Amino acid sequence: MSISTTDAPNTSAPVAPAARAWPLAALGALLVWAYLPMLGVFADKWLNDPQYSHGLLVPFFSAYLIRRAWRAGGYTPRPLPVLGTVLLLAALAMRVVAGSMLFHQLDAASLLVSVTAVVLAAGGWPLLKRTGPAIGFLVFMVPLPYELERNVGQPLKTTATVCSTFFLQTLGQPALRDGNLILIDEVRLGVVDACSGLKMLMTFAAFSVGAVVMMDRTRFEKFMIVLGIVPIAVAANVLRITATGMSYVVFTNKATTEFLHDFHGWLMMPVGLALLALELWVLTRLVVAPEPPRAAPTPVPPVAGPDRVRVAADRGLSPVPA
Questions:
Q1: Contact present, 135 and 115 (Cβ < 8 Å)
Q2: Which residues share a beta bridge with 188?
Q3: Is 107 helix (H, G, I), strand (E, B) or coil?
Q4: Residue 179 DSSP code
Q5: d(CA 128, CA 120)
Q6: Is residue 128 within 8 Å of 119, Cβ to Cβ?
Q7: What is the pLDDT of residues 161-216, one digit of tens each?
Q8: What does the DSSP assignment read for 60-71?
Q9: What is the number of helices (H) and of strands (E) in the chain?
Q10: Least C-beta-crowded within 10 Å: which of 20, 61, 261, 290?
């Protein structure tokens, strides 16, 4: 008696990206509607505070990362609705606490948790692995809390003042530091909150992390790029303050000094990008890219030589391979 068996259908076949695009888009639109008041507060910050003007571009870049991941092809979904529901409940609790404390940053954190919950419920870890960089990049659209901003800005101002005074002295100027003031003869250059470099740090951090996500480099190189965000931002700010101080020494016309002050501020990002390019150039020459594994050579069977074939034929035997 023969028993015929049939293979069970494969329920974990890769799903085309378009198959789940519309449900995810609908859930995303629902989240945007739910968090619209918080996004309105942040939009006002992006439009009126130059320190966070880059926040307007963050959602668009995250959308591009999602589109890039979506075009990579199908994936094998493993939905986790229970875990997604738990995270949604946690996000709801965070919203309640944020609303009672008027803590917009906590509300923004609940948005990221909600997006993560939707992704896990829809596609599980495979989908989260694809969309994780886009979700994480949304952190850069959130302004820092006031206390954290003040605690970070003050050390940046002190560092910028000390380093700029040193460079001005190196350039032959009788520069003295008095708190966050730089005294050069009759010139009093104040390093105020706007000159702390926090704006440059936030913008440059968003740009550098976006570049790390996009570029095809080793993990060590990506780690070094992230590690160099703060030094490069501080260096660009120090160069700006030093150049501004020299401008006030060389020029006495008010219109000229004001123009150079704004011009040096505009140059901060190009200088930071130039330093980042220099870092990438150095890393390219220091780090050796690993070679792809080579396939093992296919063994070639030996071929019988002409002498052995001739001897075997004389004896009436068939040739034997060597």
A1: yes
A2: 183
A3: helix
A4: T
A5: 6
A6: yes
A7: 999 999 999 999 999 998 888 998 888 888 887 778 888 888 889 989 998 988 88
A8: HHHHHHHHHHHT
A9: 12, 3
A10: 290
